[in-house]
Amino acid sequence: MGYLETTAGEPMQYMAAVYGHGLKYERPPFTFQSNDWERLAQDQMSKNSLGYVCGSASTGETDRKNRAAFQKWSIVPRRLVKTTSYPSLESQCLGKKLPVPIAIAPVGVQRIFNPDGEVAAAAAAAEEKVPYIYSSAAATSIEEVSKANGDGTRWFQLYWPSNANNHITASLLKRAKDNGYTALFVTLDTYKLGWRPSDLDNAYNPFLRSDSIGAALGFTDPAFREQFKQKYGKEIEEDVKNAAKEWASTIFPEFSHGWEDLKFLREHWDGPIVLKGLQSVQDAKQAVELGMDGIVVSNHGGRQQDGGPASLDCLANIVDAVGTEIDVLFDSGVRCGSDIAKALALGAKNVLIGRPYVYGLALGGQDGVSHVLRSLLGDLTMTLHLAGIPSVKQMDLNRDSLQYTG
């Protein structure tokens, strides 16, 4: 699709190019209906991969709340706001100026959705100038993903091993730093995988399988390899099944760390540290007190704990409590440009995109991910433009831009 290549990083040019091709009766290969991405991607995925990405914890209550929360807020348009250009999407987050206010959320085992997996997603993120967050549960090594991402902005997500494996944690952080990952995202809500009926119905846990689909980071890590060899007297390649189980138990250690353990991470990481998975004001204040650089208000897209609050419903209170002292990022339930705008208006510095880009990956690899990212940014741009909001900076886009309709 030529206009995907020629309009990389330019969502408004992308829209114009699509209409231009329409004059020659050519239609794009991917839909722009964001609500249809999931349904169409389901046709491309196996039952196992479909259950893994689309499934939620228990009854799915938290996931439904995430989606419904956005409809409680409406963007109130202003008129006769003189404009000479489209709204600026430039933002500031974690001490860095970014061209867009979104990032690729960390999603593991991406090769179960498309053979190119993380390589395709990382390359698309770089093309669209969107930060890419690498998952500890990736199906591709951190070095390969770094190469695919090139000059892009990339951040490293840690599923945090127990203190008994601090040497492995230190090794992972060193590799991330050596490969150009500039911020550390520590996921706090997944020390054990949640109660996920769709995965249980399929008896499918990708991290335990002998194809080691989610163990690329561990299998290429010298500290983990050495520990495995000492324990089993074999190289990983000689006993992949046990190695996969060992890696899964390393990054999902069953029990949570404590606040005091953050000291170890600070000693081994000299860049920004972001705590992902916070929903309480108390936790946010604690993160500030302990010198963290950012937090992600998130409930893991409703995939971990059921019966909890919508992520968006927690955002404003946390921003009010700590938003001037720490960067507050957001994820969970985002499906379109107006969702992004609402989260930014409520105080988020950046919005992580999760399931939608995975659907793009399933639909068309790198091109599919680029299409989803460009579509979301184009939708965001036009949402702001037609509402008379000149930029995503909080002097322009804030709670005054919204009306709560409950």
From TrEMBL:
Annotated residues for binding of FMN: 106-108, 135, 157, 187, 276, 298, 331-335, 354-355
GO molecular function: FMN binding; oxidoreductase activity
CDD domains according to UniProt: LMO_FMN
Keywords, ordered alphabetically: Flavoprotein, FMN, Oxidoreductase
Record domain FMN hydroxy acid dehydrogenase: where: 26-405
Active site residues of this protein: 300
Name of a matching Pfam family: FMN_dh
UniProt binding sites for glyoxylate: 52, 159, 196, 300, 303
Matches recorded under InterPro entries: Aldolase_TIM, Alpha-hydoxy_acid_DH_FMN, FMN-dep_DH, FMN_HAD, FMN_hydac_DH_AS, LMO_FMN
Cofactors required: FMN
Family (UniProt): Belongs to the FMN-dependent alpha-hydroxy acid dehydrogenase family.
Name of the featured protein: LAME_0F00144g1_1
Organism: Lachancea meyersii CBS 8951
Organism lineage string: Eukaryota, Fungi, Dikarya, Ascomycota, Saccharomycotina
